[in-house]
């Protein structure tokens, strides 16, 4: 993809500067993050069972040239998300509040608990922040078989920004109320989680459509790389690779086909009103 000149001031690059420390947050944020973590095949028990403090990191080092370039790329993609969502919200009579993005190595503190690289990128509603350890993309390629490009990274960040949009629109609050009510079975709540994740994929596609119309940054193969990443982290693909069989009732993020479908629906429609995955999937 082509780079733009835009850069966001809402990126906190903690790589090489240490981190760790006591676990903070919990409650609503912890519950939501447990569902969202599975986007990347992570284990939410690392969040839910954490209690107490973790050993602080003492690493202090200069970032490599490649790491600095990655940081610039994330600042650029974050800026394009901010500009696009500011416009979409304004077009619908609302005001967009940008999310923050944290880049870290190994672990760092978040409003939802201790962020760990094993969890993959995630969004924490408690502090309205996307957390990304870039080593995840090696895992995506080696473990899940997706070819990683710059637009793969852009898609993943846009998906997490989609969760931020859901947070601003009150969607995450509603799904958490359903979860906490105790009136729904695990299978029913899994369907709610699938609808939540597929809507974030739809928002990622919508972002790609709007941003490309403005910046013309897509190059041949970019959309295909995003679709490949979406398919790679489909529940069926993850289950086949991890346990050798597929159990659809335990899906929390949607199948590979569903993830592709909703990302492309966002891109092709360019209409946020067509992203109601809940009515589509929870009939």
Can you put this structure into words, describing what you see?
53% of the residues lie in helices and 8% in strands. The protein has 283 residues and is of the alpha/beta class. Helix 5 crosses helix 7 (186-215), helix 5 crosses helix 8 (222-232) and helix 8 packs antiparallel against helix 10 (256-269). Mean pLDDT is 84; it is low at 19-58. A hairpin with a 4-residue loop joins strand 5 and strand 6. The chain contains 11 helices and 6 strands. The longest helix has 30 residues, at 186-215. Strands 1-2-6-5 form a 4-stranded mixed sheet. Strands 3-4 form a two-stranded antiparallel ribbon. The chain is globular. Its main location: membrane. It is found in: Membrane.
SSE string, helices as H and strands as E = EHHHEEEEEHHHHHHHH
- Secondary-structure content class: alpha/beta
Low-confidence stretches: 19-58
- Please tell me the overall pLDDT: 84
| Proportion of residues in helical segments | 40-55%
Percent strand equals 5-15%
**Structure summary, number of beta strands:** 6
Number of helices: 11
Transmembrane segments: 20-40
Subcellular location: Membrane
Membrane topology: Single-pass membrane protein
Keywords: Membrane, Transmembrane, Transmembrane helix
